[in-house]
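Margin note: ligand = adenosine monophosphate.
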Amino acid sequence: MAKEVIVSAIQASGNVHIGNYIGAIQQFVKLQDKYQGYFFIADLHALTEPQDPEKLRKQILDSAALYMACGLDPKEAVIFIQSQVPEHTELGWILNTITPLGELERMTQFKDKSKKRKNILAGLLNYPTLMAADILLYDADLVPVGKDQSQHLEFTRTVARKFNSKFGVTFKEPRALLKKEGALIMGLDNPSNKMAKSAQSPNNYIAILDEPNEIQRKIKIAVTDSGKEIKYDPVKKPAISNLLIIYSAMSGKSIKNLESKFKEKTYAEFKSSLADLLVEKLSPIQKEYKRLIENKGELLKVLNNGKEQAQKVARTTMLDVRKKIGLLCE
Ligand code: AMP
Ligand code: TRP
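Resulting structure:
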């Protein structure tokens, strides 16, 4: 039987952090054997925030290298760059033409991001239609994402249904695959907001490429809660609970196990152990990342190969779509 398909991505917005790792990339790596995976770098989505062209180019390649350094294997999964498969934008446009404005205006991510900005760009509003296209092109069964993206997944299902009922069954309705714990890692400087690449302060996140002393420093100054017990209680102890989730995801130990391990310990001791753990787990990833970036030719070859494999599928889907909606296909 053919393997089920999973599709997912991270934006090429730099500073890939442990929230992305725990909420997304770690899952991709676990799933890549069992499923046919399509994992790409969403560079077009990154354009919905202002980007410096030189920096963006570097971020795209860096993110691809990080995918592989974290364990994604081009022999198992198709790894590529979104903008190199233009069918994504083509289908995104077509989905825009059947999407009511109100549905896009209601999206939490759009509301949050546009609150922070004076000039609201149309690209930010249309972000979910491009994301739906990313997924529907490959007939995805499952989409592993962090909790912050579940509304976009629901939107993808809605737009697929709408297209199918208008033009005949074309798309599969994909399901989100959320991790139970660690689906949303919160900021180290403010546990009521998610850890985010776009955070104002770099103290909000641990980037996968942070140097050991940077990791130690950021964990040391991470916000904690009142009291002194190391206990999982997201309501009363949001900061410590967040650190426990991170510890658990990075070590593979259960939260219960960690609570007893740190029973008699202080916040400072717990934090110091967490910082050591992060340094230990991230350093092999950083080493492999350096090797890949220094062998740019090899990296570009993988991405080119991924592009070709992805495009084969994307072209077939688009031909079907073009025919169904009445575009000239001769
Ligand atoms: P992005 O940083 O927006 O490109 O997100 C890439 C992937 O990481 C998506 O699957 C997100 O759901 C996930 N992600 C982003 N931020 C977090 C976070 N703070 N906690 C858990 N997952 C996250
Ligand atoms: N919007 C996602 C995020 O910010 C990234 C993304 C773009 C994505 N296209 C996708 C995730 C398709 C899953 C499937 O996290």
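The chain has a mean pLDDT of 95.
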